[in-house]
Amino acid sequence: MQYGLNDAQEMIVATLRAFVEKEIYPHEALVERSGTVPDEIAAEIRRKTIDLGFYACNFPESVGGAGLNHLEFALVERELGRGSMALTHFFGRPQNILMACQGEQVDRYLLPAVRGERMDALAMTEPGAGSDVRGMTCTARREGGDWVANGTKHFISGAEHADFVIVFMATGADETPKGVKKRITAFLVDRGTPGFTIRPGYKSVSHRGYANSILEFDDCRLPDAQVLGEVDGGFEVMNTWLYATRLTVAAMCVGRARRVFDYALDHAATREQFGQKIGKFQGVSFQLADMITEIDAADLLTLAAADRLDQGLPANREIASAKLYASEMLARVTDAAIQLHGGMGLMDDYPLERFWRDARVERIWDGTSEIQRHIISRDLLRALGA
Amino acid sequence: MKVLVPVKRVIDYNVKVRVKADGSGVDLANVKMSMNPFDEIAVEEAIRLKEAGKAEEIVAVSVGVKQAQETLRTALAMGADRAILVVAADDVHTDIEPLAVAKILAKVVEAEQPGLVLCGKQAIDNDMNATGQMLSALLGWSQGTFASELSVDGDHATVTREVDGGLQTIKVKMPAIITVDLRLNEPRYASLPNIMKAKKKPLDEKTAADYGVDVAPRLEIVKTAEPAARAAGIMVGSVDELVQKLKDVGAI
């Protein structure tokens, strides 16, 4: 890994930091209060992102993306992580899995998503299948040459704005020595398909305005043309294209932690108690030292994992470490920042209580901390036959 | 028409400036530096002239330390076509005085033959507000300063100037030096395609000696001090009390 960013990468960071400060921060209080993003603000963010050439910057140039490498894309996510997720959602980064589109799917889904004309969402989680993805009960069965889907998905981020959803369904099962193993297939499902309903989900303590939806499939008929990847090849598409989404969580945690840290540092340098700046008290200054050390460590873990991907090296364990450490670091940093602010830190006049609430979900979604620890330890022990 | 845009690398406007302990100046070590915001407005205006078909080429130029090439890359990423870096100091704390910068710029103008020089009205670091005017005098070109509106028509330009208490509109003969004010435009962000293109755009490196200009300082900074700390305010209970307090201090 080469340390330090090149000129272009520095400029990507500078541009996005200015963009997030000027185009995202001013709308955050409104989103927090109302719990929604007004359509005109969403449209404005999307238009400005397209004008800036950053829309779908995670896609290769061959399909109209910007062709950023993993490291550069991690920088993008890191800077966006400073702002409200409800708003940065419209700084569109469609799911990489759309690269699995074949034939006419390219014109119907992939290219419009990259151009910002159609928005996507990804649906995997079910009420009875969280970390245990293979436990899914949503099924699609063969009937008259089509697929007929039934079941419920929940916690589906961005579905309320989605024009189509990438949905994983069980399409069969195999007897294996370890028991029954479900076969999974990915489908592209358009909003408005008969038998497919998107309804509002739960109110979450984290990321107000970044809604989750419940998707219901009731004899929803899907032709073969809607299969993404191969029939029964859902895990293959998942593994080929979704391996790096955990890294985006890590990167966003780092960006948000830096924003939180700036509040803490400023407060320590200006707030006076007992006749001096509170930063003069070692109890406060050592806390700041620990915070920045952890933030820098999480930043380096994240960029190093991205760099491994760019070099084509195995990075599964490194990505898991980055996601685990960055999300747990964010919890500690937001908690410490509130402690440092005292009572005012809990009031919604300051954004700190929001950062603290938002931090909680990062240890749960895209693989809980426990799943990340499982991935890391299995990677080490499997090689030793344990 | 070719447009020359001089840009300066200055302390970022978001940075809380700290005076060096010995009062000799401002601490610039490990401080975030950016393009002077007024120069950003000048770059933006040049790009708009090009987009409107009134300019063919935009050349950004910076006089200062080697690190100013980062500032020039930003100008290139915004949309300038090429850049010239004139290295005139090694130490980031060395500020090249307006007259020296203007003399170098006059030589650059001689070599490049632009039809228009667009520059910020002043740099936010030491607020000299002199380089544009000095350049105009050295070249014998017309000048329009503090521009809040600009239109270029063939052999002349119409400039709306922000002057004390109002606006003044003047017509200047081209070629001209126009210094720009805050309200002229809102600079764009560097787009991702332009950021990627910027590294391939030419950036020539020169030195002050190449232009035969002596940049030794003529001015002596006697002392640099922080502004006086703002005194604590008081809470008043009513409008009447506020009026009385204002009368007491002779404010009304």
What does this structure look like?
The complex is a heterodimer of chains A (386) and B (252). Chain A is α+β, with helices and mostly antiparallel strands. Helix content of chain A is 47%, strand content 18%. Chain A has helices at residues 7-34, 39-51, 70-80, 85-88, 105-115, 234-241, 245-270, 282-310, 316-341, 352-362, 369-382; strands spanning 120-123, 139-143, 146-157, 164-176, 179-190, 196-200, 212-222, 227-228, 272-273, 276-277. In chain A, the strands form three sheets. Chain A has a four-stranded mixed β-sheet with strand order 1-4-5-8. The longest helix of chain A is centred in the C-terminal third of the chain and has 29 residues, at 282-310. Chain B is of the alpha/beta class and 252 residues long. In chain B, the strands form two sheets. Chain B has a nine-stranded mixed β-sheet with strand order 9-8-7-10-6-1-4-5-11, sandwiched between helices. Chain B has a two-stranded antiparallel ribbon with strand order 2-3. The radius of gyration of chain B is 21 Å and the shape is globular. The mean pLDDT of chain B is 94. Classes of the chains: A alpha+beta (386), B alpha/beta (252). The A-B interface holds A 6-8, 10-12, 14-15, 18-19, 51-54, 57, 66 and B 70, 73-74, 77, 189-196, 198-199.
